[in-house]
Each structure stands twice: as structure tokens, then as C-alpha cells.
């Protein structure tokens, strides 16, 4: 579904260049539900904008649903954003029109495509558990209900890809769990590819794969050991839900987790020694490098 290779994004001002993405590599399968996590400024929102056609890469390769997005014209991008991708934002002001009802908000993107399928809006509100709130104005809905309306809007035109930017950032933990469960159900029932961007590592417990971004590159990936359903059946299990893998790029470069560097006293060092011992690569701090 999504293939990024050597993806670079540079933002330029009069006398400054900022590298938001620095040769990022990522592959996402069709129908996958995954999360991208990282600290503020790591590049995760920049990547989401690229996937959604809201911004263009400076260099590299970006293929979505078999289409090369670096070759898109402006018309191609408009068509892509209308028909191929849906967005859910943390800020409901970007998702919803306040003076419309929940149903009217969902109907709007359908009408913009020239269709008048009111039943589609009702079907989507039912899918997100809000059929009983169809005629409610936004001020009558809770934050979690508004976010579920936003998810229904994102699905209005049958997108193949759903992108969510901090979708649980403005709701409490109980509602956050309900929204993430809804994403899992939509992924299972519709087969839609869902990519969630967040800074919350707890999200890893709800998805099968998590990619961590650091300094504009994928630094590690966490894959679920067992299915989410199996883990729900054993709520008292103590085993970690995911196993974490560092990412080795084609040039042999590896990002070492910052916690490891701090433990070895290498946080402010740019030199280490590598040794191959019993089939393992050992990283030694500089003071142990010589005899």
C-alpha cells in the first residue's frame, strides 16, 4: 500500500534549511493497522502530510496504492485527497463544521463529489455508534463523540487509506480506548489501511506494528508477539506485548536507542568501537577502545 524509500523533506527559509525527513524508509502493507510514534519535531507529522498529499517530498521515493506521488500534478493531488485518503485530526475544528448537525457534517464530503447518498451518511454514523446523535449539533456532542463524527467523515468517500494525527490527544483515557477500539473494528471490517501518528507509546498496545521516528528516520519497529484478541483473553499476562527491532538501512547504518547510549555514557560522544564476539556485535565506549 505504502512504500517510502530514502524520503527527504527540507524546509527552507531565507538563510536556514531544516531537514524534517532524512532518508526515511518505510513499507506499509495493504490493510495494515499501524502507529508511528516519536517526540515533537521527530518528523512524524511531516511524514503524515506526505502520505496525505498535503506536502511534497524534496527527494526520495513515495509510492501509495501503486502511484508515484512525486509525479503527481496538482489535479492528481486533488483527486487523490478526495477519493483515496481520509484524514482525522486531533483538532476538531479541522474536522467539523460547528453549525451543521452530525449527519450534515458527514453528508458534506459526499455532496462535494456530486453524490446525494444520504443513506451513506446514516450508515457511517451507525458504524461509529452515533446513529442516535445524527441530528445533534456539535455543541451537543462530547469530545469523543465529535471525534467519532470526524472518523465517519474521513470514511465518507470510501478511501483506501485512513490517516489519523493524534486522534486521541484531546480526549480522556476511557474515550481514547474506545476510539482506538473503533479503529481496530473498522480495519477488520472494512479492510482499510490505517496509519495513526502519535507521541503516546501506550498506543502500541492497541496496534500490531509501531514504527518509531527519530531525527527524521525510522529508528526502530515494534511488532506484536501475539494477536490483540489473544492478549485480551489474558488480561493478567505480564509478558511485554511487542518485541522491538532496531532498523538497519541499506548503507548499514543503525540508530542506537538513546537510553542505551546514556547507560554506556555515550550520549555526547560521536565515536564508539564495534567488536564481533560470539556472533554478536558489541558496542564499546571510547575509554574501553584501546589497551
Automatic annotation (TrEMBL):
Gene3D superfamilies attached to this UniProt entry: P-loop containing nucleotide triphosphate hydrolases
Domain ABC transporter residues, every copy: 2-240
SUPFAM superfamilies xrefs: AbrB/MazE/MraZ-like, P-loop containing nucleoside triphosphate hydrolases
Top-rank taxon, per record: Bacteria
Protein name: ABC transporter ATP-binding protein
Keyword Coiled coil: no
SMART domains: AAA (SM00382)
Entry-linked CDD domains: ABC_MJ0796_LolCDE_FtsE
Assigned keywords, A-Z: ATP-binding, DNA-binding, Nucleotide-binding, Transport
The keyword ATP-binding appears for this protein: yes
Record's GO cellular component terms: membrane protein complex; plasma membrane
Start and end residues of each SpoVT-AbrB domain: 243-288
MF-aspect GO terms: ATP binding; ATP hydrolysis activity; DNA binding; transmembrane transporter activity
Organism per entry: Paenibacillus nanensis
